[in-house]
């Protein structure tokens, strides 16, 4: 940690440990390293990397970080207290923790008497010994420790004096942070506030009687009551100095406290400095990056960083927003690296289309036919089933077209797709042949693929890659099909959303047809087109700035 | 409203008005009526149905409800105050409100001076006149009124005396509820608490000086700071008696206060009665029903009602949870109609598989080979890319198979799928032929479809529907493809998740292959199988109880 780093609040990220408990989420070691590096850039002081004693993958992770350390953040190894009726020195899990080579270690221990007696099946005294022994041992090995008081609030409610004893024990053993964990996620903010205040007063009294350093208080919340962020804020306002959470609120059950909501609330609204201002502007991108790495769709409606967080729908106040944003937006989206969006929908009026064009850097004259034309085209397409809100790339191409400026990178002259699946024989690949013209030159290519869409996509790229080498960096990253009007009795339309990426950006294009292959073809072709458009815009921007 | 209904808090649902502002959401009149009926059953006293003056669809909606009224809930028409410089009696929008024929009307008005002068471009005095005139007019026409103070908290912060004047005006005009709206969603709970208390004291003083009935205070929050629920709870604890929100938190930008989190918090934790106990047990189903009707995927990680809300992962404490649930769960899932789930994953141990089997009603003997066999099969399949967490129906079938009890509804003997897509000609449909055996009898059928998967699905159903007429009620409701290992360089596997439904239940099945058609085929066949299994289980249950 750089020595001049002194935030008012210490952020502690557990995306790589608690976050990975989320159902359906599973990350490789490389994924974890990529995320850790990004959190380092974001300015998060503590990054809980995993539990090397329990997860073999984590042993590797920590080892890699010893070889190639982070620049600023402290990476933290996580572990439980030693088991009952042994010593910390003889506990193999703790050896794995030491081998991880981190300066800091987080130890979690039981705060709730019931968990000790019924869960661990040991005595209340032994649990205190486990806490003391583990922390003292780690300190003797040169580690700085954070103590996570598991099930703190419920434990306190059921047996406050025992719960406080566990904290006192951790404190007396030299833990530098005592983190109160709402492990079940059931506590409410007013309770958190009152209990945190009680803890701080109580410990101050105890400290007063001994010669000890007062540890600082941290808070670790879960979202089972939709209060994780509110609880963390309540704790901070009651004196906690560390907040634990995850990017995008990933975690078990309903998730952990979402750092992407917490940080802007604490820093922009309550004035606690956590990370540098320019690091805060990276928040939205960090959120999307992490969702990308763990292969989860980003939550478009997430506070602060969601794609819809500053999306204004309905013609009524769009012009009012542009004139005076803070009367309709609670913060400036740029402060967290997000941006205002004007949503085009059935209810859109002309002002929405104009605003949207502006957001793509296109100035439309209100009186010109283009604007009305675009609006009409959108309405027509939407009534056919196109959904531009989810396919901004297709919308952008539509606008360029209406303005007469849609670049003609290629022209598909014809194609054919053939697929067979015969049970009992090995399933054959689909085969696509495509004829494309680039700069007046015809190219005929054929390709196989795992299915008709993949075959078409492969043939198209094969045909184009010599003219547009950047295509080699494009990937089809996702493919969604939604069946429209399924219950109307008429032929159901299929809407296909294809997501493409080039390594650092993703874009979505849409196709609609009663035939899924036709719909897929539309979306795939537009996906390539948009990728080429982005590339040419980036090249032009570089040229302009040199 | 039944006269003996006297909750301690009044719930006000705006799913059908504010909720529909969510990006990508669009509902038909029939959809709105279905939702309204469900909310009625749930016991929600106020249902804001729409804005008939602004939305033609809503005129129809209210008219339908006059013909076929709800049993208990009050349906409410929503509207703005009259425009400046006219009279309420001459305002056409208000005529539409009256035509809606509701007993209650909600009027929203400006609380923030800036919105009045810069937005509405009128005077502060005229705005007060608009509030007064509109409410008095509606009352003269026999309507009971609720006043929504738009942008209340920001308006109060910027010009408290004017904001309070708008409330006093509404109160003096006879509004029965004054709802403080955090329209920008930027307020924090401690601010809400303090401002609500201030409002209540202030109005009590004013009341004391006049002969007026004290209106009650309501709260309407948005989730831009991830505080919508916390803010609503803070307001209630400060004296508010009405909470406004939406099912699943649907709404513009980051959504409205989520009633599915609010109601259990208020009722189960804070002891405010809102709806009947047995109605609360319908909450989870109501949440899923609404998401189904609006065609949005349910949020699996939603507090209280999410599929993962009580999902326990990791072998460690699963046995502890079963012995003593309240030490690991903040409420009993059954209280909101949800259930505990044991998650099977890479980290699963034997105890997880046993617990999961139990949740499907299957008792496995710990020592028997089946349990270990299932675990091994799961691990093998998962390493190939199957993801059972998202495809519980496939998992259930796997378990039945391992126990030797997987019913053989049909056996696919062979099939062939052929599809052509020739640009320039009309895209032809895909054609599938299938040979199936049922009870030893062979059936050969062919069918066309909008694509290879649809054709296979259609042919299979055609072959089976005479034996299993219930198949006619099954629908393919969604189809998702995820490309696995896209960046490893080896042949990418494709995972297909197929969601099927029978009108009141949905289930997901999975298929994995390098060939998308093969993967789709697996998922489709299991989807039909599971639907038939459900049907036979339901039939057996009916028989058993008669």
UniProtKB/TrEMBL annotation, chains A, B:
Pathway assigned to this chain's UniProt record: Amino-acid biosynthesis; L-isoleucine biosynthesis; 2-oxobutanoate from pyruvate: step 1/3
InterPro entries noted in UniProt: 2-isopropylmalate_synth_dimer, AIPM/Hcit_synth_CS, Aldolase_TIM, Citramal_synthase, LeuA/HCS_post-cat, LeuA_allosteric_dom_sf, PYR_CT
MF terms in GO: acyltransferase activity
SMART domains: LeuA_dimer (SM00917)
Catalytic activity: pyruvate + acetyl-CoA + H2O = (3R)-citramalate + CoA + H(+)
Alphabetized UniProt keyword annotations: Acyltransferase, Amino-acid biosynthesis, Branched-chain amino acid biosynthesis, Isoleucine biosynthesis, Transferase
Domain Pyruvate carboxyltransferase, first and last residues per copy: 9-281
EC numbers, comma separated: 2.3.3.21
Database matches in PROSITE patterns: AIPM_HOMOCIT_SYNTH_1, PYR_CT
Record-annotated membrane-spanning stretches: none
PANTHER family reported for this sequence: (R)-CITRAMALATE SYNTHASE (PTHR43538:SF1), ALPHA-IPM SYNTHASE/HOMOCITRATE SYNTHASE (PTHR43538)
Family of this protein: Belongs to the alpha-IPM synthase/homocitrate synthase family.
Record's protein name: Citramalate synthase
């Amino acid at each position: 940690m750089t020595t001049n780093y002194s935030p008012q609040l210490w952020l502690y990220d557990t995306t790589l440990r608690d976050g990975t408990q989320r159902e359906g989420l599973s990350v490789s070691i490389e994924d974890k390293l990529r995320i850790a590096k990004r959190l380092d850039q974001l300015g998060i002081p503590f990054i809980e990397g995993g539990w090397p004693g329990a997860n073999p993958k984590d042993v590797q992770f920590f080892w890699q970080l010893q070889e190639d350390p982070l620049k600023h953040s402290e990476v933290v190894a996580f572990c439980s207290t030693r088991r009952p009726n042994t010593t910390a020195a003889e506990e193999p899990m703790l050896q794995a923790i030491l081998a991880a080579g981190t300066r800091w270690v987080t130890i979690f221990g039981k705060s709730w008497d019931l968990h000790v007696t019924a869960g661990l099946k040991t005595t209340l005294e032994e649990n205190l010994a486990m806490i003391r022994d583990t922390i003292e041992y780690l300190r003797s090995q040169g580690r700085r420790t954070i103590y996570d008081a598991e099930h703190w609030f419920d434990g306190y409610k059921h047996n406050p004096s025992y719960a406080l004893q566990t904290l006192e024990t951790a404190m007396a053993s030299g833990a530098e942070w005592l983190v109160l964990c709402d492990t079940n996620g059931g506590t409410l903010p007013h309770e958190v506030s009152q209990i945190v205040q009680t803890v701080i007063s109580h410990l101050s009294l105890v400290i007063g009687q001994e010669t000890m350093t007062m540890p600082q208080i941290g808070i670790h919340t879960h979202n089972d009551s939709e209060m994780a962020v509110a609880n963390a804020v309540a704790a901070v306002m009651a004196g906690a100095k560390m907040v634990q959470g995850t990017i995008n609120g990933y975690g078990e059950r309903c998730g952990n406290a979402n750092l992407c909501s917490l940080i802007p609330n604490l820093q922009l609204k309550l004035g606690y400095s956590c990370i540098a201002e320019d690091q805060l502007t990276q928040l939205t991108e960090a959120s999307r990056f992490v969702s990308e790495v763990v292969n989860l769709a980003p939550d478009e409606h997430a506070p602060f960083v969601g794609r819809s967080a500053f999306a204004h729908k309905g013609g009524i106040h769009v012009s009012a927003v542009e004139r005076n944003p803070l009367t309709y937006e609670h913060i400036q989206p740029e402060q967290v690296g997000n941006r205002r969006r004007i949503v085009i929908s059935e209810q859109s009026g002309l002002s929405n289309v104009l605003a949207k064009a502006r957001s793509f850097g296109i100035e439309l004259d209100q009186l010109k036919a283009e604007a009305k034309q675009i609006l009409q085209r959108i309405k027509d397409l939407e009534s056919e089933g196109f959904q531009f809100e989810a396919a901004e790339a297709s919308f952008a191409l539509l606008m360029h077209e209406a303005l007469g400026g849609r670049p003609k990178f290629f022209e598909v002259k014809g194609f054919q797709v053939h697929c067979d699946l015969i049970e009992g024989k090995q399933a054959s690949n689909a085969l696509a042949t495509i004829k494309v013209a680039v700069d007046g030159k015809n190219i005929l290519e054929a390709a196989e693929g795992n299915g008709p869409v993949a075959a078409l996509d492969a043939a198209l790229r094969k045909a184009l890659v010599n003219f547009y080498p950047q295509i080699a960096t494009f990937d089809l990253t996702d493919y969604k099909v939604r069946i429209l009007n399924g219950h109307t009795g008429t032929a159901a339309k299929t809407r296909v959303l294809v997501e493409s990426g080039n390594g650092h950006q993703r874009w979505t294009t849409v196709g609609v047809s009663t035939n899924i292959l036709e719909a897929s073809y539309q979306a795939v072709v537009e996906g390539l087109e948009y990728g080429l458009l982005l590339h040419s815009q980036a090249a032009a921007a570089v040229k302009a700035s040199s």
